Hints:
Peroxisomal Thiolase, Chain A, domain 1, 8 helices, alpha/beta, 32% helix, homodimer
Amino acid sequence: MAVKKIGGQSLVFESRPCVASWAAVVGPMEGEGPLKSEYDMIMKDSLFDQDSWEKAEQKMMQYSIELALKKADRLPWEMDYLLGGDLLNQIITANFTARVFGAPFLGLYGACSTLAEGMILAGILIDGGYGDSVGAASCSHHDTAERQLRFPTEMGVQRSQTAQWTVTGSGAYLIRSGETGVRMTHATVGKVVDYGVKNASDMGSAMAPAALDTIRAHLEDTGRNAADYDYIITGDLGRRGFDSLKTLMAEEDLPANNLTDCGLHVYGGNQDTHSGASGCGCSAIVMGPRFFKEMRRWPRKKLLFAGTGALLSPLTSFQGESIPGIAHAIAFEWTEGENSK
Amino acid sequence: MAVKKIGGQSLVFESRPCVASWAAVVGPMEGEGPLKSEYDMIMKDSLFDQDSWEKAEQKMMQYSIELALKKADRLPWEMDYLLGGDLLNQIITANFTARVFGAPFLGLYGACSTLAEGMILAGILIDGGYGDSVGAASCSHHDTAERQLRFPTEMGVQRSQTAQWTVTGSGAYLIRSGETGVRMTHATVGKVVDYGVKNASDMGSAMAPAALDTIRAHLEDTGRNAADYDYIITGDLGRRGFDSLKTLMAEEDLPANNLTDCGLHVYGGNQDTHSGASGCGCSAIVMGPRFFKEMRRWPRKKLLFAGTGALLSPLTSFQGESIPGIAHAIAFEWTEGENSK
């Protein structure tokens, strides 16, 4: 049997599951950002014709999955599994969206690393032969997250300069077996890493050590160098966390010149979002529209995507706990033709 | 290649991953129930020498995993992956427990179906060749769940007769490849099912349709009959939900004489828990101590375990939503000797 696990944390996807399609539905503010022409749908307001922000968030996730399926010319009942999660308590957005689709459903929670977690499990399901077509989606909504995790939205609390802006957006990805395109070659499942950061307004710095840990493990396990990738893309460290990661990488003599972060690609400099974007929707609305699209235009690029998550809750902060982080990584490569199975 | 997916929702585990060991740590009330002699550790009070119930819950999960590893003569760093979840917002119990172990970690949320979801994914990781040794754990704590999901614990709200008692307990299972013992042969991944029940004090009835849906799909996909199993065991329907499921099964001409529910096995009749036990810890402290243990004593039995989850949140109830349910099923069989791979 082929080797499928290498090193301490990494998997090899021999069959190279393919990202067959993706779609992103975003809020009005994201729709004014630098990727505005790449999104499939921009909400005209944060309610999206619903009577609560939570219901708007569900509709956003539902639409993103429907659009991704449509682009791959697939019907909803042709998904073997749907994997998803979000930031809301009891992941209600994903659960209620799954109710609409009626596909076999696995609910995930990895905070903002949920998309990466879902993509890895989608890759395992396909590469392992347990399915042909798996949807992976994650989303966040600024207003639902803000009132659940921070302050009542109407209170208008002043945000610190290290704080990031939770993205209103949902991204869905349809992973399928063997096609030409953006294909998954390896994955690295992250460990929970905690350097003792306690500032809930600086989650980027809390997550940076987890990103380092997973990127380092990935390179060690696969025997690759950071320079083998055209881009190494973290999920949502934001400006502050991204600087922390560059510092940490320099300390370990890892080159960081190809490093970037999804949280730096959502908003323009004039949009007053302080440290950049974050949230389960952040990498979900950036990976496809920004990076996979570039792979299609200039084939043969290699990417490493390390989705990052801060595993705190308001309650753990109140009880004096520090903020543990996690990062899950996936290596993507442009590959022509059928899989090697 | 061998067929690994059958029918619409089911998987075949050709290599039959084995439940190598399990352990259960429970609260004082569970420690007075009918399974008291089967638990590995009974807390003397609900705080477990910690300064908050939440920290007690983490300690409980940590101890259950450590004990399961010890029983299989394994060290913590010999787990290829740890999969887990719980009822608390942002699954902080599982996240903070994973911080202790430092194993590659995948956080899950399937409400009280989380153990079944974790076991299915553990089976896929092992059967697919991505690892040899996977921990799956889930837990709940009566006092943390009560104050988060219902009312302040000190308020002493009178409970309705249909309400279930959230278990204080954690169960951990170590899944490994090819050994004699309790082995996983099939799994059925559930769909989100909603019959419109809105009473958050009767979650058993809200989950019963999902249990029916998954059990029926399992039997159709595998071509088996309900009578092929010595037991069909639901996760935490409780007395009321269990009666609903029996009624629903009778309507479909499915025999229910081998049907039982983990929620009926935790507390004695004199313990005043109304409709029985529930919570992520419910099936986790019953499946091993009650059912897998019986398989060891009288080998060759076949079990179907359908872990059930109610996918609501207090917020969805406040916003007038009904309660969607989900159930994930796993078929276990006593099997001697090496796997067939």
